[in-house]
Specification:
The protein is an alpha/beta fold. The chain folds into two domains: 164 residues, 2-enoyl-CoA Hydratase, Chain A, domain 1; 254 residues, Alpha-Beta Complex (2-enoyl-CoA Hydratase, Chain A, domain 1). The chain has 22 helices and 25 strands. The strands form seven sheets. Strands 11, 15, 17, 18, 19, 21, 22 and 23 form an eight-stranded mixed β-sheet that branches. Strands 9-4-3-2-1-10 form a six-stranded parallel β-sheet, with helices on both faces. Strands 12-14-13 form a three-stranded mixed β-sheet. Helix 3 crosses helix 12. The longest helix is centred in the first third of the chain and has 26 residues. It is globular.
């Protein structure tokens, strides 16, 4: 071979090697870097997921959605990052629950505790509508600016519940069921036309607890005398400059003016979106001894956790959550389990399956610390009650220790539309679950015995797990919901706080020094979209992205309607009839 050919091949090889190095460097550095002087830019005018299940539908529909943990981790990472000097956030009528607002407020306060500025601005806090929650969130920042044309809908809290007894009557449909006990109010939707006295009592207590929490936070942040707060709210809403006069905001300014003020506080600093910052800087809690993070999100059902793209909702599948806890127990590197619960409840049997795994984890020497989100009631409390410690935000809705069940009697509807039914059956109780027959006396007796069995089991396990006298549990149960603040006072919750508080308790329970770093690992390991597709039975990988995007847009319009129909029992799937430990949705005007 001639020297010329050898030289030519050597040059080609060198070029190939250089290209490979460039490609590797590009891949490694594709995330970009965090500037030496950074201002984090956040959009908090949106709702945040707790977590999404590993299904193709969820990964596609929710791929652009940031989770609450992402927000908290990014803010906490920035708090301890010398490159980050401050934060600016857009806030408005964010559709967040009270507990989510409090979780982010705490993260912002931790950020400010590191001597870093945090500025909030809003086009409006409720444009001719309530803006209590979003304004409450904004008061965690050291400065608040409002667009001159904006308002602050600080008008107080209203809680509303629909009652469709009259509608069902017009349709010829009757709900036949029962509950344990008078505060288990989900069935009131079908059987009443307004609040019963216990229902109203429980709702009023939640409303007042939320109002007082909001008052405490706003008054402390804005240096308002607490005894003046009620008058302040009663005078709302506040229009533009009125908000400045009332000292609710620090000034009126447009976005460009706010950003000019922010940049003047940190000359030479560069802005970086919260999402990009977390991607580049990495999460906190990535080194040290391992704490497993298991999510229990959505209605509790048997089977695998899933996402319903039509209703836009997800469920906590007992198979998925139980196996995740077992995997964490089996992993010798895991020192404790952080179980994040955000659920209205659901199936008693599925809840009991998860409860057992929590018990087994503790028996195996793995401490379990529960962190509650916006809602951890009924079955959502059932899965949590055996944990070593339970942490909730003051605004979390929890407990609802009770049970209900029943069926819709639809014969009147069929008579109205001229549809007739006939049947044959074998077995004295074969008609127990059909809507064309009322319960027989014998069936009703068995139904009542079933309610009693579930209630006795539920309250007994609360007494055991929470180390409370059974008499006290029976007094505070009865299906009643409590705020996290009230639940702590009653012994149903151990501490108030969010992820940060729960992680500290997990370290303490595992014997890890408070000053030591820990590595938080999600169980089960999240799959990529490709893995979720190929591991999904019957998955069709031939769909074109354009078709899927069109479907996604259609579903976004359909989801709100589907959720409303499901809430009143019109479109429920057969498996949803097991939701005996489930709370009703609560409409809150904020």
């Amino acid at each position: 071979m001639s020297k010329a050919i050898v030289r030519f091949l050597a040059i080609l090889g060198a070029l190939w090697l250089i290209g490979l190095v460039i490609m590797v460097v590009a891949i490694i550095g594709s995330k970009g870097t965090v500037p030496s002087k950074t201002i984090i830019e956040a959009n908090l005018e949106q709702s945040f997921l707790e977590n999404a299940p590993d299904t193709p539908a969820a990964k596609f529909m929710l791929k652009e959605r940031f989770t609450l943990r992402d927000v908290v981790d990014a803010i906490d990472r920035g708090a301890n990052d010398d490159r980050v000097v401050g934060m600016v956030a857009k806030i408005g009528a964010a559709p967040m629950g009270t507990a989510q607002v409090q979780e982010i407020r705490e993260a912002v306060e931790r950020f400010r505790a590191h001597k870093k500025f945090a500025v909030a601005y809003a086009e409006t806090f409720g444009e001719f509508g309530p803006g209590n929650g979003s304004y409450y969130l904004a008061t965690a920042f050291d400065q608040i600016y409002l667009q001159p044309s904006g308002d602050i809908g600080l008008t107080g809290i209203i809680m509303e519940s629909p009652f469709i007894k009259g509608t069902l009557s017009k349709l010829g449909v009757t709900f036949r069921g029962d509950h344990r006990y008078e505060y288990k109010n989900a069935m009131n939707t079908f059987t009443e036309t307004k609040y019963t006295a216990p229902h109203k009592e429980a709702m009023s207590a939640i409303m007042n607890s939320w109002f007082n929490q909001m008052k405490d936070g706003i008054c402390q942040a804005r240096q308002i005398a607490p005894d003046k707060f009620q008058a302040l709210v009663d005078a709302g809403p506040y229009l533009g400059q009125e908000a400045v006069t009332a000292k609710l905001v620090d000034g009126v300014a447009y976005r460009d003016e706010v950003y000019g003020k922010v940049k003047s506080r940190a000359e030479g600093a560069e802005l970086l979106y919260l999402e990009k910052y977390l991607d580049r800087a990495g999460r906190p809690h990535e080194h040290g001894k391992t704490v497993a993070l298991v999510f229990g999100v959505g209605g509790v059902t048997r089977g695998k956790s899933d996402y319903d793209p039509v209703q836009g909702s997800q469920n906590m599948g007992s198979d998925t959550v139980a196996s995740a806890i077992r995997a964490a127990v089996a992993d010798k590197d895991v020192k404790a389990i952080l179980f994040r619960v955000d659920s209205p409840g659901g199936s008693y049997v599925a809840s009991d399956t998860i409860w057992r795994e929590v018990v087994n984890a503790r028996k195996a020497g793995k401490p379990v610390i529960v962190s509650m989100g916006d809602l951890a009631g009924s079955g959502g409390y059932f899965v949590a009650m055996a944990a070593d410690k339970i942490v909730a935000q003051p605004g979390t809705i929890t407990a609802s220790i009770g049970v209900l069940g029943g069926k819709m009697l639809t014969s009147g509807l069929w008579d109205k539309v001229g549809l007739s039914w006939d049947e044959v059956h074998q077995g004295a109780s074969a008609t127990m679950f059909t809507g064309t027959h009322d319960y027989t006396p014998a069936e009703w007796a068995r139904f009542q015995a079933w309610l009693d069995r579930v209630y006795v089991d539920f309250t007994g396990k609360v007494a055991e797990g929470r180390r409370l006298p059974k008499e006290k549990v029976l007094e505070i149960a009865k299906g009643r919901i409590w705020s996290g603040q009230d639940a702590k006072n009653l012994g149903l919750v151990d501490e108030l706080g969010g992820y940060d508080t729960a992680l500290k308790l997990a370290k303490k329970a595992a014997g890890i020094p408070e000053s030591d770093e820990v590595k938080v690992v999600v169980y089960p390991r999240p799959k990529t979209l490709f893995e979720a597709l190929v591991q999904r039975r019957g998955a069709d990988n031939s769909d074109k992205e354009a078709v899927a995007q069109t479907l996604a847009r259609i579903l976004q319009d359909v989801q709100p309607v589907a959720r409303e129909l499901n809430a009143v029992g019109i479109t429920r799937k057969e498996e949803d009839q097991d939701d005996v430990l489930k709370m009703p949705e609560i409409e809150v005007g904020r």
